[in-house]
Amino acid sequence: METAFINTPLGIAKLIGDSKGLSEIKVTDAEETVSTNIPQNLKIAAEQLQQYFAGTRNNFDFNLNPKGTDFQKRVWEALLLIPYGKTVSYLDLSKTLGDVKAIRAVAAANGKNPLWIVVPCHRVIGSDGSLTGYAGGLHRKKWLLDHENPVKQQSLF
Fold first, then answer.
1. Average pLDDT of 72-76?
2. Using alpha carbons only, what angle is made at residue 125 by residues 121 and 131, rounded to the nearest 5 degrees?
3. H or E segment at 138?
4. Is 121 an annotated catalytic residue?
5. C-alpha closest to that of 1 among 50, 70, 48, 67
6. Rounded CA separation 10/141 (Å)
7. Of the residues 12, 45, 118, 121, which is catalytic?
8. At what angle do helices 103-111 and 70-79 cross, to 10 degrees?
9. 24, 68, 109, 93 alpha-carbon torsion, rounded to 10°
10. CB 38: neighbour CB atoms within 10 A?
11. Above 70 in pLDDT, residue 132?
């Protein structure tokens, strides 16, 4: 596995992956040195994340290789179906997966998502529209949702 650190508006992002794909993205407040040389296996991911934060990309097309249970991977695959700029509730996500009673398990799998931003767990909100749960902190979740769906200034005339 190779590692790189890139600067983002949310903090330093740690990227981990190999020739099979990216297995982890985590953004933290920890003091890390930004990588000056990005390993070849992580270059496309680093470039596309920078484009996302610059507002010029709204989807990702590099290989993903997250580690998790079969159920977690099913949840993460369902997260990939949530369009950029849209949100769904945990209940909606449970329905998509075919078991409305699995809402707690779906929420737990969502919280274990190792590929923040790319596998858009930040797009899952409470049924009442509240920003509930985000491993990276609610301030990051709010930033990501605002970034993907900025409020447009309405014209008065």
1. 96
2. 105
3. helix 138-148
4. yes
5. 67
6. 10
7. 121
8. 80
9. 90
10. 19
11. yes
